[in-house]
Every structure is written in C-alpha cells, then in structure tokens.
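The aim of this short unit is practical: by the end, you should be able to scan a pair of folded records and say something sensible about each. We start with the first protein, listed as its amino acid sequence and then its structure tokens.
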Amino acid sequence: MVFAGGSSLVEHFMGNNMWFFSLMHFAQFVILSVFYWRCIHNENMRTVIKFMPVLILGIFIFDFFWVEGFRAFNSISSGVKHLVLLVYGLYFFLQMLRDRNLIENAIYIDSLPVFWYNSGIFIFSCTEFLFCISYNHLQTLQSTGLTKIGMTMAILSINYIVGIISMILLYIGFSKIKKMKHANY
C-alpha cells in the first residue's frame, strides 16, 4: 500500500516517481532479506544475507546517481536485487528438501506456510528480474520508434498475471497458518 499509494502521490505532486520506485525496491529487498535470514539455517548463508543489503545499497547508489539517474527506472539495481532474491529462494527450497527434521516427522513441505511464501516470492522475482533488466531497453526502443507499445504492454501483462499468481500463493500460505492454529487446539 505504501509502494502503490506513495508512488501515485509522488507522481501526482512531483511529476516523476522513479526515484520513489528505487527507494521502495530497496526497502522491499531489506524486508525480504530479513525474512530469508530468519528462515535459512546455514550460518554462512545467513552471514551473506546479513551483508547483502549493504552491497545492494552500494549498487543502488551507483545506479541511482551515476548510471541511470533518479528520473529513470533503475533497472540495474532492481535486476540485481531480484537475482539475489532468486538465489535466496532457491537456497531455501533446497534447505527444505534436505531438512532432516521435516523428513523424520513426515512433514510435507507443501503443508508449511513458508513454502508458499517462498513460492510466491520466487515466482514473482523470476518475472520481475526479466522485467527489470529489459524495461529501460524497451523504453529506449520506444523513444527511437523501433518498437511499438505492444511489447511493453505484453511484458507488463505477464508481470501482472504472475503478480496475481504470487498473491494466490501467499494466500495459500496464510491459509496454512490458520489450519495450523486450529490443529493445536
């Protein structure tokens, strides 16, 4: 809500909200890094996750001030952010598949809410990564007249459809919490 409402207000009052998009993408990365830091058990990976926001902040600042600027979509820092989230998600999937505690207790990973959260984040990051690394290129092609708006609309449509699928997966994860609470009574 902060992301959508804030970007709309900033665009309305300032005429350009791309700098706000960049800040919100970084804030999302920090929040998701905390989520993965809490879920992943390997201490080496947890250390990497702890320091990754600092590295992404450096890439963000470099992209924001010297490469693409504050009036453009910062596709480099956003693309790197989603690539790192893909690695986090993949590592977490592998951790769940090898978790001895889950295997010994015959717990299926699809009964865990974090499995569904990770699935939603992972699927969204896959398409968002492709969107982020291609968006500025598509805008450049449009401004030179080499492409039609249809290509951009197709990419945005795919992104929105995958966003809806991600929301469904997150809802399934929330519904698993509800079932787990009732099972404890």
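Turning to the second protein, read its sequence before its tokens, just as you did above.
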Amino acid sequence: MWSAQDVARDQVRRQASGLDVAAVAEKVAEAAVRERETAEQLRGNGSFYAFEMDRERLAVIWLAQHAEWRRVRDLMSAVGWSVYEPERDAQGSVWAREREERFADALAAQAAFGARGEEADELRAEVRLSAASSRLLRAVAGRTGLSPCEVLAQLAERIVVGEDGTVSVPSFMPSW
C-alpha cells in the first residue's frame, strides 16, 4: 500500500523531529552509505538476512530515505532552523496528511468490503494445492469450460458433513 517514498518520508519525519543540523547531516551521510550498500548488494547478490524485505524494495527505500534526509537538511539550511520541527515543515505536513487520508480510505474500504462479505455471507479463500491436485482441478475446469475457482465453488456447495464429522462430496458433474 505504501510507496518507498511514503515509507521514507514517514520514517524521516518521525526520526528527524528535534534533531539539530549536525544530527541531520549525520543522517544524510548514513542514508548515503545505506543506499550505496543496498545497491551494491543488489548488483552483487550480497547477503541479506532472511527477515529482511526483498532486495529491490529495500534499495528503493534507502534511495528515497537519502533523498528525504537531503530535503530536510536543505530545508533547515534555507530557512535557518537550528532544530527540525515536523509541524513547521509545510511540504512534509502535506505528505503526512495525504498518507493519513489514504490510510483512512483504505481502512474504510476494507471495512466496507468486510460488511459486504458478511451481508452476502460469502467467503473468499486463497487455496494452495499440491501439483497433482492442481493439475486435476485444471483438467476438470478445462473439460467443463469453468475456471478452477468455479469448480472449487461448486465442490464447496455440495459438501456433506456426516454425523461423525466426516466430510464428503457426492459425485456430480460441474456445469455452468
């Protein structure tokens, strides 16, 4: 949902609050090093920890952070601030409001989608099948002219649960 610029701007805005010019200059230098390191690791297939995000996204985020730290440094120099105060940063405040609005819109859309799903009493599921089951499902779908999802939906509509808890599906012919 968030672009690399959104992530960078939000992090820098929070981290820069209350920092003086020298501290911001250190952050610019650190971001430059991180940008260069991630770019080199991306080109040279360097090692990344397993818990880190994908290499390309990390490199783009450090590029964006470096640019945002430079913007904050340049703003402080141009305006003559001794300390960075996020609320006085007009452009940063606009971006922060836009992020908050997009986040609120996304939450509202998610809530509306959830409400529609509850109203219709439907379930959306992502299913991972073995290669053999997947081939069989695709073959059935191909023969019937249905999509694999439609075949699974018809299977689900016919589920029978026995008194002992066993689950079965009586034989049927998938159809439009």
